[in-house]
Amino acid sequence: MAINKSRPKKPSKLSVYLYIPNIIGYVRVLMNVYAFAICFTNKQLFCILYFISFVCDGIDGWAARKFNQVSTFGAVLDMITDRISTACLLVILSQVYRPGLTFVSLLALDIGSHWLQMYSTFLLGKASHKDVKDSTSWLFRAYYGNRMFMAYCCVACEVLYISLYLLAEKPTEHLMDVLLSLTKEISPFSILVGLSLFGWAIKQVVNVIQMKTAADICVLHDINKKESP
């Protein structure tokens, strides 16, 4: 007797939009919008909202795996929210510190490296931009292959930017003057900034490696396309 195997019901478009991790993503967007609206009038509340949004970045990933609600839309929403929120904070820092070009350059590196990485992932037909097991760079593999290491670098980066935001007392602060002032006395805050600087530096190196690796993949794709009949 044949067993009638029914296929699992295909989720509707609305149900994917209403996945729990995606709802968390929408809340993150709203928190960031409000946070940046008050960033010059209420620094403390801005930092609280910004950091809660950042923490939710880890929660939505956990929720996606826990409730089997992993989606391409959710992954893209997550990355866009991360990149835009960090970009907005870097723009603010470029206005309160001199030279502002430092933060604009960091913004360009962050956006450029991640965009190239996503596009190269598409060219290779991989499911995730974090699949870098075939990379020749041990640091690149360690960054995406170890969740704790990647989390430390990402948290360190955000903590450093928020700390600099809180330290800015006037709109023309010189970045090096502020950093050097922290070395004059040892305090829990200066130690926190020091630990953040280390993780931040690793993340910038990874961004450079990521950009170069992804650019090479794009170039090789062009070469192979020209060689094919």
From TrEMBL:
<keyword id="KW-0479">Metal-binding</keyword>
<keyword id="KW-0464">Manganese</keyword>
<dbReference type="GO" id="GO:0005794">
    <property type="term" value="C:Golgi apparatus"/>
</dbReference>
<keyword id="KW-1133">Transmembrane helix</keyword>
<keyword id="KW-0594">Phospholipid biosynthesis</keyword>
<comment type="similarity">
    <text>Belongs to the CDP-alcohol phosphatidyltransferase class-I family.</text>
</comment>
<dbReference type="Pfam" id="PF01066">
    <property type="entry name" value="CDP-OH_P_transf"/>
</dbReference>
<dbReference type="GO" id="GO:0006661">
    <property type="term" value="P:phosphatidylinositol biosynthetic process"/>
</dbReference>
<keyword id="KW-1208">Phospholipid metabolism</keyword>
<keyword id="KW-0812">Transmembrane</keyword>
<keyword id="KW-0443">Lipid metabolism</keyword>
<dbReference type="InterPro" id="IPR048254">
    <property type="entry name" value="CDP_ALCOHOL_P_TRANSF_CS"/>
</dbReference>
<keyword id="KW-0808">Transferase</keyword>
<dbReference type="GO" id="GO:0003881">
    <property type="term" value="F:CDP-diacylglycerol-inositol 3-phosphatidyltransferase activity"/>
</dbReference>
<keyword id="KW-0472">Membrane</keyword>
<dbReference type="GO" id="GO:0046872">
    <property type="term" value="F:metal ion binding"/>
</dbReference>
<feature type="transmembrane region" description="Helical">
    <location>
        <begin position="186"/>
        <end position="202"/>
    </location>
</feature>
<dbReference type="InterPro" id="IPR000462">
    <property type="entry name" value="CDP-OH_P_trans"/>
</dbReference>
<keyword id="KW-0444">Lipid biosynthesis</keyword>
<dbReference type="InterPro" id="IPR014387">
    <property type="entry name" value="CDP_diag_ino_3_P_euk"/>
</dbReference>
<dbReference type="GO" id="GO:0016020">
    <property type="term" value="C:membrane"/>
</dbReference>
<dbReference type="InterPro" id="IPR043130">
    <property type="entry name" value="CDP-OH_PTrfase_TM_dom"/>
</dbReference>
<feature type="transmembrane region" description="Helical">
    <location>
        <begin position="149"/>
        <end position="166"/>
    </location>
</feature>
<keyword id="KW-0460">Magnesium</keyword>
<protein>
    <recommendedName>
        <fullName>CDP-diacylglycerol--inositol 3-phosphatidyltransferase</fullName>
        <ecNumber>2.7.8.11</ecNumber>
    </recommendedName>
</protein>
<feature type="transmembrane region" description="Helical">
    <location>
        <begin position="16"/>
        <end position="38"/>
    </location>
</feature>
